[in-house]
# Entry
Amino acid sequence: MKTLQVGDSVPHFSVVDDRGKTQSLGDYKDQKVVVFFYPKANTPGCTAEACDLRDHYKELQEAGYALLGVSADSVKMQRNFSEKFDFPFPLLADENKEVINAFGVWGLKKFMGKEYDGIHRKTFIIDEKGVVERVIDKVKTKEHAAQILE
# Structure
């Protein structure tokens, strides 16, 4: 797994979100973007993380950040997740793993003694020029907004 690092340019991507709209990094020119990857919509950790970001969305916006959530879930699953919890930011339905692979967050995971391939929970803060400014490897799901704002 080769994950993007601080100083790397983010490759172009174009993926449909939970509302069926195509999202690309170019849509956020001259803006800081937080791209957060989560394993699966509607699971406890992913819900806690996204709800924390929702609850602090105004603060994140005031700090100049746009938010994009990404998982390999379908548009329908992302839409249900977003509507259920009223998320004000887009959730990308990266079923073909275009963004997931571009950022290098797909790889071997271990859970309860089993090994499998999946999405690693990571967050990338991208500057106005499309360059990775910071990577959060150890996401605290219930305090993620504070991690971004620190």
